[in-house]
Amino acid sequence: LGVGGMHWFNSSQLKNVEEQLTSVEELSASFQRTHPQEVSEADEYYASVWARIRDPLRLSLWRTGLADFPAVKKGEMEELQRILDEDIPRLRRLASPSHHGSGKNNR
């Protein structure tokens, strides 16, 4: 009875924590913790991307369950950060109206 009770209690606690972590509020708080500069600068691009992915992300996390997601490696996080910091701004500059028809900035 003791081991079974502990297992039930721990499982229910983990389920409660998972529900809390996948709530819109906690996901938004996580976004604010991981992107403080963009949030403090009220960067419209990041805000619009977050608004578009927040609900599908929450649904995906809820359907799959946090325990079934593999851990993210440090190198993967660094690559994602490089894409956000370098590639996306470069592509945004290239797509801006001032660059259309200009051959000098198409590198």
By helix and strand content, what is the structural category?
A: mainly alpha
Identify low-pLDDT runs.
none
Instruction: Supply the number of helical segments.
Output: 5
User: What does the overall shape look like?
Assistant: elongated
How are helices and strands ordered from N to C? HHHHH
Query: Into which percent range does the helicity of residues fall?
Result: over 70%
**How does the major sheet shape up?**
none
| Number of extended strands | 0
Mean pLDDT: 83
Separation of termini?
68 Å
- Strand residue percentage: under 5%
Radius of gyration: 20 Å
Describe the structure.
With 107 residues, this protein is mainly alpha-helical. It is 74% helix and 0% strand. The chain has helices spanning 2-21, 24-34, 36-40, 44-64, 74-95. It is elongated, with a radius of gyration of 20 Å. The mean pLDDT is 83.
Give short descriptive properties of this protein.
107 residues; elongated; mainly alpha
Outline of the structure:
The protein has five helices and no strands.
Task: Give a topology summary.
Blueprint: H1 2-21, H2 24-34, H3 36-40, H4 44-64, H5 74-95
Helix pairs in contact: 2-4
